[in-house]
Write the structure tokens for this entry.
Amino acid sequence: MTVFPPVEADIIIAGGGTTGCVIAGRLAAADPSLRILILEAGPPTLEDLAHVQPARYLSHLLPGSTTVKFNVGKESADLGGRAPIVPCGQCLGGGSSVNFTMYTRPSPSDYDDWETMYGNEGWSSRELIPLLQKMETYQVAPDKPTHGYDGPLKISYGGVFTSAGKQFLEVAAQYDKSRGTTDDPSDMIGINAYGRWQKYIDKEKGRRSDVPHNYIYNRQLDNLEILTGYHVKRVIFEGERAAGVEFLPNARFRPEEEQAPRVARARKLVVLSSGTFGSPAILERSGVGDRRRLQPLGIDVVVDLPGVGENFQGDVVLEIGTIWYLIGLMGAGSPVRIDHNVIFAPYLVDDDAETLDGIVRNDKEEIERWSAQWLKDGSGLMAHNGIDAGIKLRPSVEDLETIGPEFTEQWQRVFADAPDKPVMWVGTLSMFVGDPSSVPARKYSSLTYFLDYPESVGHVHITSAEDVNAPQDFDPKPSDIALMRWGYKFGREIARRMPSYRGEYVPAHPAFSEGSQAACSGDAKPASIAQANIQYTKEDDGAIDDYTRNVVATAWHNLGTCAMKPREQDGVVDSSLNVYGVLGLKVADMSIAPSNVSSNTYSTAVVIGEKAVTIIMKELGMKRRG
């Protein structure tokens, strides 16, 4: 076997996902003398249309995708005996390069909880909101107090305002007058109001606002080396100090290379940034984890740290005939919450509706039409994600009665004293979310709802000391049925009042019994605003619950497996992101989040990167310039 000479760097970043690219780009720009190495298991993304054109995002969920890794969990009775499949980005930029480009920010209390509940000084909303501002250029409106206007990531409404988005807002304003509207649903000030939804899309160019194109590729960073197509196997320790990493080629992208280990040596620091699945796996293969799990695998224990791989919080994805309907459950270690379980309930819409269905089906005329417009001025459906409107929703007293007593304890514990925390997001998505070849070629609108603080728990751990591709021990525990039932009913009332509504796509809705008032129709006209709500029987509720178990998916929002908590509370890193029990080793990605956030996790992943930069620069005595 060939022995390769070691690669040398000051800082090694194991994982070139969202957070890792933020750290690398900022540090390399701040000090040209600092040598930084990124090791990423997936491919590069430079100027690839699948990444820079927003409307192509569902292509990353196709079977055989080279930009997403699909993690398979254990079969679960709660999911009808099916095994959940959780996709996560595996390319330079990670989730930022493959996600839905939906712009959503957490509630301030989410970050405040990180400080007050877990003792992480410096991680409250007071400290993190300025970093949210630093990361963005908000193109929607000027002079918004919580937004930024000089950051690398552009925020806009995208290239068009679809009819589905307009109709959703018009219907909601008349049907649900108690909640009102807002011109900024992600201002981190108020919730429970309907609004037009922002996107990680550059208004001027119509391009996805991902991290690699805006923190790295657009800069001349001669001191940054990026090696794509390489797995990081383990951290190399010299005594208690992390001295480097062992890595090897990913045969999928480097089949011609000898599958022999290489070594990269770090003069100053090793940062694990491989995500909710990857970072705990590297730690465990390195001998950092629960002794009871590591020793049976023949791993020498460096630090007995039982919290590694525990506290998994992520989105459950259920397999529905094809991998397309999956959208993410992530986990690790001990009990883990299932973060943001989601359902995309599909409705039929009229032929005049503006949807992404033709682009997703790869219809030649649609691709040519919208690509030409995108190339001309960055506008149109190719510069869009189909998500134009929604609400961060809190139930009223009447709604709580509808949801029922199953939710009472969680409401009192999580929401009652935190008025900025929404229970779920409800909105519209202008297309069918799934395998386009499995449904009639027509236009659809998906009424989408996902939970912000699911109660479900699970874990994820390695099963092999040597094989980086070995399936992980991944066991999510879905729950939250009562809230998902309410979400279906709530969203359906808005959807069926939209003027473009032509019925449900019946095969992808609950199987209500014949004669039920709730029975779905594939040929229907819009209901009036004043028409009474559908009345559901106990049998109908059971049909919705079965539907939830069979189709609930995920929003790719995985976190918590290397939690930033006190060690005695199964924490893995401290508030400076240092791994307990060793030196020179940090973790910086969504795995460090100690508790959930009420939003898509892209913004938080970037903020963790920005916060890590401030911590590392202070420790190295650097002045921030990049």
In short: The first strand starts at residue 7 and ends at 14. The mean pLDDT is 91. The chain has 15 helices and 22 strands.
